[in-house]
Amino acid sequence: MAFLFAFLLAAAFGQTLPQLPLPPGKVVLVPQPHHDDHTTDYGMGGLIARFVDEGYDVYYVRASNDEKDGVALPAENDNINHRESVAAAKVLGMKEVISLNWRNDYTASIPLNELRAQLIFLIRKLRPDIVVGHNPWEHYQKNPDHRNVGRAMAEAYWMAGLANVHPEHFKLDVQPHQAAYLIGKARLDWGLGHTPNGAFSFNEAQQRRKEIAYQTHRNVYAHPASARALKATLAKQNLTVPEFANLDDQAIAVQMEEWFMNWQSRKIGKQAGAKYAEDYYFMDEFDHLPGLKDYLQRNIQKQ
Amino acid sequence: MKLIAALFLQVCALAQQPTVLVITADSADYVLAAGGTLAAMAAKGSAIHVIRVSNEEKEAWDLSPEEAALRTKTESEAAARLLGVKEVISLGYRAGELADIPFTTLRDKLIFYIRHYKPGVLFLPNPYIEYERVFDRYHTGRAAEDAWNAAALENHLPPFTASGLKPHLVPEVYYFGQPVDPRRRDAESTETFVPQLKQMDIAGTLATKEKAAQALKTTNDAVTRRLKARLDATNRRLPALQTINDASINALVHENVQGLARIAAQGTAYKAAEEFRYAGLAYRIPAKYRRP
User: How far off is chain B from A51, nearest CA to CA, in Å?
Assistant: First the structure.
């Protein structure tokens, strides 16, 4: 109902994306393949910061070991990326980073049901109301980890509520639990592969935390080499950026990343009539019962 | 004499109706998405065979997987009988586990049945539907679509060919699914390359479809109880579910079937419909090669 209202309101004001209210609940689970997927330019640091500020407990599941991401050797990358992931999660205010340590970029060849079983157990243990991750129906997604962790997540979030799914878990004092809402993120600049149905807005301070969390991943972002390359390109055209005058290359790289993140959030915010926003495909609690949705909206009452 | 002639014509008409093969992951999917259309085809004389891929052991409330599998099998046969389906073949794969079944294993079983029944019409789950969270339907749809293609090729499964199961091309295919994808009706390409939207009037068989859907008692019971549990946990109520019994569950199924029929009828003059992506004669045969 809230979603319908948001959609009508957005249409009335000529916005292309309705602003969505945060779904009700207390716990959010964010299963993602990599150390940095919760803080990327097109993703979800702003939404996570808002969830935290509004009292939700947010947990991050890092499914892969990230050994390929970075310039170091695999084991070293794994270690650095894990450390930076924990630091970024702290900036956003998340409760915990849970690493499953599947081999980075190799999830296409693992038994998907095994990964799903791990997520089902975590859903039963942490009992999230909302699950946030890669939209598994995204097209043109080249990264196998994004596809496969998204797929496992999209099954786990509701199958965890079925008592006949992995009954062995119940020996560990957990009960069936179904998350009611799924929020899928995807890149919009990849063809027509993803059509968002709404946006979550956030404030200046939350945007700032998103920027800081992003550049916390120094192993893969905000590298001084990117600043040197930009300065060299500008120098060839006799151009300078005044804001860079008193900064070293590391600080310039950070500044560039922060500007980019800010621009990205403002761009989506403009579409949604907010200063800052991120867009998603939001699956409401009864979307899986399309024939009943109208009937339920009309007839459900508060007790 | 006139009566004999009329009976003869009736028998001839029945004999001309194509055999229909339905491939589905679970019974609820095909009954809810295609039950009305199938009931109409059965009434016209088509012999309909259903391949039910999963054992539906997970979709149950307070039943063991074994008990759920047994009950859903019996109920799937009861639902099929109501629609006029001749036979349900349950492959028995564990529900929710199809991701780890080798793709070609499932596909080759389906090729076997396509070649055996030589259907004129094939119904399969649309694997291109977005936001269908039951991925068994996706896996079944992918395997079924590939089986449709491969069943017609001589070099697939030569032992079957040698045993008399000759290649067979099914000329008409209906892709079915639940209307969860907001882009499901978006135009993609011409009918030569992409199965097109096809809406079927099911006003005449809606009641039959509803009865078939109500026969899936184990699934309906689980869906209803999960819905009530969700409402209870969030301090909400649905007056119709004050008490859960056969009557209240059937009432919910009634609302569901009616709601789906309304959604599928949108954009038509029909009161009740089902919508498909349809690949018929025009699929893969450009217009210039077809007779008007």
Answer: 19
Asked whether the beta carbons of residue A302 and residue B59 sit closer than 8 angstroms, the reply is no
Tell me: pLDDT of A153 over 90. yes
Domain coverage including residue B203: 17-289
Q: What letter would DSSP give residue B287?
A: G
Cα(A48)–Cα(A183) distance, integer angstroms = 12
B151-182 pLDDT per residue, tens: 999 999 988 888 889 999 999 999 999 999 99
Range of the domain at A215: 14-286
- A291–B62: do the CB atoms touch at under 8 Å? no
Average pLDDT for chain A: 90
Show residues of chain A in contact with B257, CB under 8 Å: 291
State the total domains in chain A.
1
Region A91-104: what's the mean pLDDT?
94
Q: Pick the residue with more confidence: B158 or A166? A: A166
CATH number at residue B21: 3.40.50.10320
- Residue pointed to by tokens 């947010």: A58
| pLDDT at residue B288, as a whole number | 79
Query: What is the distance between the alpha carbons of residues A124 and A169, in angstroms, rounded to a whole number?
Result: 9
Residue A125: alpha-carbon gap to chain centroid: 21
What ipTM was reported for this prediction? 0.91
Nearest-Cα residue of chain B relative to residue A135: B131
In a domain, residue B212? The reply is yes
Q: Residue A18's domain is classified under what CATH number?
A: 3.40.50.10320
Q: Are A164 and B63 inside 8 Å of each other by CB?
A: yes
Q: Which of B68, B99, B259 sits opposite A113 (nearest CB)?
A: B99
Cβ <8 Å between B238 and A296: yes
DSSP B169: -
Q: Which of B99, B230, B235 sits opposite A180 (nearest CB)?
A: B230
Among A295, A214, A177, A178, residue whose Cα is nearest residue A46? A214
Residue A182 forms part of a structural domain: yes
